[in-house]
User: Fold this.
Amino acid sequence: MSETLAPDQVSPLEKALQNKLILGLFLPLQEGAWSPSSAPRGTSWTYDYNARCALEAEKYGFDLAFGLGQWLGKGGYGGETNFREHELDPLISSAALAAQTEKLLLISTVHVLYGWHPVHLAKYGACIDHISGGRWGLNVVTGYKPSEYRMFGLEPIEHDLRYSMAAEFTEMMQVLWASEENVTMHGKHWSMRDAHVLPKPVRGRPVLVNAASSPAGLEYAAAYSDLIFITSPGGADPHQAVETLPAHNKKIKDLARARGREVRTVINPHVICRESEKEAWAAYHRILDNEDTVAADNFVAGFTGGDNKSWRGHSREQWVVGGNVHLVGTPEQIVEWFAKLHDAGCDGMQVNFFDYLPDLQLFGEQVVPLMHEAGLRKGNR
Assistant:
């Protein structure tokens, strides 16, 4: 596929950056998506459902699609819903979606410290990038849950050391992607002798992403990432988010510019959009009214019990609804909030929904055109 590309063809990331606001879809690869609730919905973790979501997003002009990675035991987070017990692997899912989509940038989450070697991921990633015609990106995750490390027979790794290891891992991948010769490198954590990767990525290096809030995580983003998935220091209330995000975004971008680089920040709104504001808030409260209490308790404890620095400003109620910022209202109100988040320094929206396909269709038909009218998006859908 890569041989058919013109050398001057605009990359998916470059095309996304032509818009005032990048638009991404947070795929529901995991059972229950973001909300430990039994409120009625058709959202499914299955591949066919996720493929339909990706194709709908592509139809409506989304720039990218992304799914999280997790490693949970039997029953997931428990409760009557067995929240997140099933989940598709994001790397394998991206490979499948690469063959079904044509325009979306497909970003795979990989916990690089769970037994991976840089040669493995450099090879697999380059293959997916080749299959997709240069539309693959990697979300580098270090992991923080002791239970996940122990699933692989590993002991948890200290927070800042994880990012030092991720930096070495990334450096080695980049050398492998760039080198036309065999590569020998000896690092503190990985070594390789006469290593070589073919095919090469279509455009030299795939898009690199990470999610972080800690100083070590932000330094990693400043050094390597093209996009960083951020969280609101003010929690999920959008009024508080737009107050706290400007300083947070500025800090991240200043770190990258000090290294002579540019990094774009992308935040994750849970969009609950309806024809009327009353209907939207009714849908919001329906999620809370049907909370799976056991699953919600375990879900919150799983994120707040580790040493990660993200999501600390969120209340338990906000965790049940899910997503990093809650945008509830009419199509016009959603777009107004997008504009305010952009003014607060966010370069992109990575949206998620509760009932994915119908919510995505409403979003595509009613919100996306208003984004164009507001100057947040350009060109044809």
Q: What stands out?
A: The chain has one domain: 2-373. DSSP finds 13 helices and twelve strands in the chain. The chain has a mean pLDDT of 94. The longest strand covers residues 105-111.
